[in-house]
C-alpha cells in the first residue's frame, strides 16, 4: 500500500464514503488524500499527527481533516485491545460545483474554511458521535441526510484549529515515504534518547540537507518537533494517571531532567505540569 498519496475507494456514483476501521492499530503510515475526512473515535486512544502538529485522541474525539493534509492516527497498543473509528470521506465537487454555494447552504462555509486547517469541535460532541452511529446502519439515502446534518452541526460548533495552515504541499510518493519514516521514528521512539544523527540516518540525507528539509515541511526544527510530541504525551499522561509522579512521567516521555521538563511544559502549555493536572483534571 502506498504511503502517499492515499486513494480513497469511493465509486463515481457515491458522493460520500462511510468507513469503519476496527483493529488493534489504525493504518499507521503518514498519508494524504484529496477528500475531506471527518473521523470519530469510537474506541481507543493515541496521537493524531496532522501536517505540522500533534494532538492526542481518545474515545469520543471527532476530527475534521482537510484536503491533502498529511496525517496519521497512531494508536496506543494495549494488550490486543481493538481500536475503532468511523470516518466519512467526501469531496465538495462530488455534489456539483455549485451545491455548497447555494444560499440555503451558506452556513456551511464556516465548515469548509476551518477544514482548510483541520479542526476539532469542542462542544456537542455527543450529538456528533450519535450521528456517526446512525450512519453505520443507515441506507445510502438516509446516510446522505445524516451527512448534511453532520456538516450543519460542525459548521456552527466551536472549533479548535489543528494546524497553522503553513503546510500546503502535495507530497510525492517518495517524499511521503521519507516523511512517514521520519515521523514513525519520532512517534515510536520519543520516550527514548533520539539524536539528530538517528533522524539523518533514517532520512538517508546529510545533516544540513535534513535540517532544511524538515524545517520546510513542519515549520519546526527536528528537536522542537520532538519536544512538542513529548510534551503532548506528557500532558495526556498527567490527566490519565493523576497519581503518577510528575518526575516519572517526564522520564517516560524522554526528559531526563525535571527542571528542563518543567520549563518546556510551561513554554508549550503556559502553565506548570502540576497546575495543568489540577485545572484540566477538575
TrEMBL record:
<keyword id="KW-0804">Transcription</keyword>
<dbReference type="InterPro" id="IPR009057">
    <property type="entry name" value="Homeodomain-like_sf"/>
</dbReference>
<protein>
    <submittedName>
        <fullName>AraC family transcriptional regulator</fullName>
    </submittedName>
</protein>
<keyword id="KW-0238">DNA-binding</keyword>
<feature type="domain" description="HTH araC/xylS-type">
    <location>
        <begin position="180"/>
        <end position="279"/>
    </location>
</feature>
<dbReference type="InterPro" id="IPR018060">
    <property type="entry name" value="HTH_AraC"/>
</dbReference>
<dbReference type="InterPro" id="IPR014710">
    <property type="entry name" value="RmlC-like_jellyroll"/>
</dbReference>
<dbReference type="GO" id="GO:0003700">
    <property type="term" value="F:DNA-binding transcription factor activity"/>
</dbReference>
<dbReference type="Pfam" id="PF02311">
    <property type="entry name" value="AraC_binding"/>
</dbReference>
<dbReference type="InterPro" id="IPR003313">
    <property type="entry name" value="AraC-bd"/>
</dbReference>
<dbReference type="InterPro" id="IPR011051">
    <property type="entry name" value="RmlC_Cupin_sf"/>
</dbReference>
<keyword id="KW-0805">Transcription regulation</keyword>
<dbReference type="GO" id="GO:0043565">
    <property type="term" value="F:sequence-specific DNA binding"/>
</dbReference>
<dbReference type="Pfam" id="PF12833">
    <property type="entry name" value="HTH_18"/>
</dbReference>
Amino acid at each position: 500500500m502506498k504511503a502517499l498519496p492515499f486513494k480513497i475507494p469511493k465509486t463515481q456514483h457515491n458522493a460520500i464514503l462511510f468507513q469503519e476501521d476496527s483493529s488493534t492499530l489504525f493504518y499507521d503510515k503518514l498519508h494524504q488524500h484529496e477528500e475531506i475526512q471527518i473521523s470519530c473515535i469510537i474506541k481507543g486512544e493515541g496521537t493524531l499527527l496532522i501536517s505540522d502538529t500533534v494532538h492526542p485522541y481518545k474515545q469520543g474525539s471527532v476530527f475534521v481533516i482537510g484536503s491533502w493534509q498529511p496525517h496519521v492516527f497512531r494508536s496506543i497498543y494495549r494488550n490486543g485491545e481493538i481500536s475503532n473509528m468511523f470516518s466519512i470521506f467526501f469531496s465538495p465537487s462530488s455534489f456539483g460545483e455549485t451545491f455548497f454555494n447555494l444560499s440555503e447552504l451558506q452556513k456551511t462555509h464556516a465548515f469548509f474554511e476551518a477544514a482548510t486547517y483541520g479542526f476539532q469541535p469542542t462542544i456537542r460532541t455527543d450529538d456528533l458521535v450519535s450521528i456517526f452511529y446512525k450512519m453505520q446502519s443507515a441506507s445510502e439515502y438516509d446516510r446522505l441526510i445524516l451527512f448534511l446534518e453532520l456538516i450543519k452541526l460542525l459548521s456552527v460548533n466551536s472549533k479548535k484549529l489543528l494546524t497553522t495552515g503553513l503546510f500546503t504541499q502535495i507530497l510525492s510518493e517518495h517524499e511521503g515515504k521519507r516523511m512517514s519514516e521520519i515521523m514513525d521514528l519520532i512517534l515510536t521512539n520519543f520516550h527514548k534518547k533520539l539524536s539528530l544523527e538517528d533522524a539523518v540516518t533514517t532520512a538517508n540525507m546529510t545533516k544540513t540537507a535534513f535540517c532544511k528539509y524538515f524545517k520546510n515541511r513542519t515549520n519546526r526544527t527536528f528537536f522542537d518537533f520532538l519536544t512538542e510530541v513529548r510534551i503532548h504525551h506528557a500532558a495526556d499522561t498527567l490527566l490519565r494517571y493523576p497519581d503518577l509522579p510528575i518526575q516519572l512521567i517526564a522520564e517516560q516521555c524522554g526528559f531526563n531532567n525535571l527542571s528542563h521538563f518543567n520549563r518546556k511544559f510551561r513554554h508549550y502549555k503556559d502553565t506548570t505540569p502540576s497546575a495543568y493536572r489540577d485545572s484540566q483534571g477538575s
